[in-house]
Amino acid sequence: MRGGLRLARWTAAIAAAAAAVLPWPNPVDAQSVYGLNFIGESVWRGCARYTALGFSAVAVSDTNNVVTQNPSSTADLRTVTFTVHQSIGVSRIHYEEETSRQTRYLLPSVLFAVPVRPGLVLSGGYVTRTAGRADFALPLEVEGTPSGMQNYRHDASLFYIPVTLAWRPIEMLNIAGEIRFDRGGITDRVVVSFDNAAYRDVESKRLRDFSGTSWSASALLRPHPRLHLGATFEAPVSYSIDETIHYTEETLDTERSLEFELPASWSAGLAVNVLERWWMTASYWRRQAPRSAGFEWLEGSLGEEHHFGVGVERLLGTSGGFFQWIPLRLGFSMAQWHLEFPAGTPVRSTFFSIGSAFALPGGPGSVDVTAEFGRVGSIQDNGIDENMFRLSVSLSVSERWSRRRTIRH
Amino acid sequence: MTGGLMKSGGERVMRRLCLMLVLAAAAAAAGCGTDAEAPVVSPFLEGGTYDPRAGETVRYVDTLSAVHVIEVPTGIGQSSILKLGEVEGIRFEAVLMQFDFDSIPYYAGMTVDSAVIDLPVIAVQDTLFHLGVEFHELLGGFMEDDTMTAVPPYDPSPIEGSSGQTVLDINFERTEFALDRSIAQAWLDGGAEPWQDGIVIVWAAEPDTLGLVEMSSQNRGTDPPVLRLYLSDGTEVVFPVTADYTVTRCRECGFAVVGGVARRIFFEFDLAGIPEEAILHYSSLVLHVDGSEGLGATGGEILLGISTDFYYYLYSPDSDDPSDPGLLEGTGVARDSFVPTLDARLKIPLGRYMIDVLAGERTNMGLVLQSDLETVRVQKAAFFTTSAGDSLRPHIEIVYSMPADFGGER
Lengths: 409, 410
Hints:
The complex is a heterodimer of chains A (409) and B (410). By secondary structure, chain A is mostly beta strands. In chain A, 10% of the residues lie in helices and 57% in strands.
C-alpha cells in the first residue's frame, strides 16, 4: 500500500517536472541583449535557491537538489533526486531614445542524482554554460523594388553533459570530480526578403558546431559547524568547431574547422552560520579572458569575467508563525562580463534577489522560487542598459522536504 | 500539535502564495509581449560586436546589348475566318479558295443563267471601308496545311464578271461577285475544266484608307464561301469551298511580336556587371506595350468569341546566332498572356532561368519572345523600342543580394 502511494507520488512529481519543462519554446532564450555576442551570456550554475542567494553559495552544503553551485555538495543527497531549473525574464532595454520590452525564457539545467551508497553520489544531466539570442529586422530600401527587410537571427548555446561523482570521505569534507561533454552551437542567419512573393528570399546562414571535453573539481569543507568553505575549479574547454556557411545558392557554401578555447575558471566562497537559522554566504568566481581566435572581430573586446555574490538565508523553522517557519533568502551579485562594449569598457551587471521555497505538493521534494531584479550594462559606460526582472522556479523531486527540515535544518 | 497545525496551515498559505506569484509572473510575462529588437541592437551591429552583415542588395538594369526582330517564314491555314485588308501593319493580301466541282457531270448539257461567287462577310472593320478585289485562277494547288508567306502564282488575267467587270468592291453589303456565265457554261458543256487549282482573291488597288473585311472560312463549319450556278430550269447548284487560306504578311509591324506571320523578337543582354557571387531575388524582362499598335483580335474574331489576350512564350534559344536555325528553338522560360491593346509595363519573370545563368549552369544565349499562338492566330503585340526613353525602353531587371559577410570571411 505504502509502496503504491510512493510510486504515485514519484510519478506525479516527475510528470509535474516534465510538464514544467515542456512549455518553453526555446531552452536558452532568457538572455540579456548583451548576449548578442559570440557565445552569449554566462549562465551561472545553481537552482533557484542559489539564484536567490546571488550565486554566493559555493560553500552551502545543505541541499536537497542536484543543481548546485558546488557539485561536491551533492554528496549529501540520500535518495534519487531529479531537479529542473527554469526561468522567465522580462526586461526593458534602453538605447538613446529607443526602448524595447523583451520577454524571454530559459532552461538552464536539468540534472538527476543517484546515491551509490551513503556519501557517494553519481549525477548527470544537462547544464547550460552560455546562451545568447537575437531576432530582429532592419528595413531595406532599394529604389525600384518593393519594400524589404534584412532579418537577423542569432542563437547561441553552449552546454555540457556532466557526469559527476561526489564523495563525502569524512563528515567535514565533500569532494567531487566531474567529466563534461561540452557541446553547443552558434547559428547566425541573415535573410534578405521583400514584400512580394515573386521575390525570392536570399539566406546566408553560418552554423558553428562546438564539441569538446573538459573536467572540473570541487570541494566543500566544514571545519566548524558554523563555518563552511567551498571551492570549484573548471579546466579550460578546448572546443573543436565545425563551421559551415550555407547560402541560398549552394555553390557558394563553405566549410572549415577551427579551435576555440574557453579558459579555466575557479570560484571560492564561505558560508557562516551567524545565528541559529541564519547563514551568510559569499562567493567569488573568475575566468580569464578568452582569446578571440575564430572570433577575430572581437579582438580587443574580450576581457576577464568576474562574479561576486553575497547572500543571507534563513533556513526552515520548526516552530512559530507563518513568517517564522518559511525559508527566506536574499542575495546581491555583481558580475563583469567577458564582453567589453565598446572595446575596453567592461559590461557589468548587478542583481538583487529574493526567494523562498515550499514542499512539493503531494510528492517528495520541494519547489524553490526566486525573483531577481537587476540591470545589465549602463547607458553611461556602454550606451545601453537593460533593466531585468527574472522569475526562477526549480522543481526538485527528492526525499520529503519535511523530513530534511527536521533532520538538518 | 498546535505548532504542527500552524506549520501545516502556513505551508499551505506559502504554497498558494508561491503558486500565485508564478502564475502572476507568467501572466505578466505573457501580457508584456516582446517588442522589436532592431532599434536597441543596432549599436551591436554598428560597433562590430555582432559580426554578420547582410550583403548589399542591388537592382541591376541591363538595357539590352542588342535586339533583333526575326521573321519566321510561317503562314497559317485552317482559320475560321478569311481576311482581306490591313490592320496594324499586318496585311491580309490574298484569299485562296478551292471548290468542290465533283458534281459538275450531273449538270452536263444544262444551261447556265447566272453564276456568282458568294463571300460570306461577317465583319468589316469600319462600315465605310470597302476594298476592290480581283479574282484570278490559281496556277498551282494548295493545301490548308501549307505554310504560305506569299501569294502563289496565278493567271494574271482576272476572271471576268457578268458585265465584263473584273473588280468587286467588297463592303459589308455587297459580297457577291457575278461571273461571266459563259465561264460556267463551258464547264457544263465540257469545253473547259473548272478551276482545278482554285482561285485567288487579291487587292485590285491600294485603298484610300486601310481596313479589314472578314468572312467565314469553310473551317468555321457553317456558311462557307460558295460558287452558285443558277440554271435555266430553275435549279440552283452550289459548289462549296473545300479549302481556303489567307495569305498574310507584316508590311509595317515595327518592334512587335506577331503571331501567324510570324515575327519574334530576340533580346541579347550582358550580365558582366553582376558579381559572380550575387544571389538572385528577382529578374524579369521588362517591356512597355504600345497599345495603339497592338492587335488582340479582329472584329470577326470577337464576334466568334475568340479571346483578345495576347499569349506569349519566352524561351532561351539554342543559339544566339540570328542566322542559325537554333535561334528558333530552345528552352522555355515563361508563358502567359496580356492585353496587347493597352499601354502597360509588361514584366516577364525570368525565374529559374536567370538563376541558372548567373550560377553558370546555363549559357546566356539571350531570350526570344514569340506569340504562343504563332501557328494558330494572327495577333500583334508592339513594344516601345530601345530608342525610347528610359522609362519605356525594354530592359532586363535583376535584383540581387551579395552573400552576408560573417566577420570578413566572405
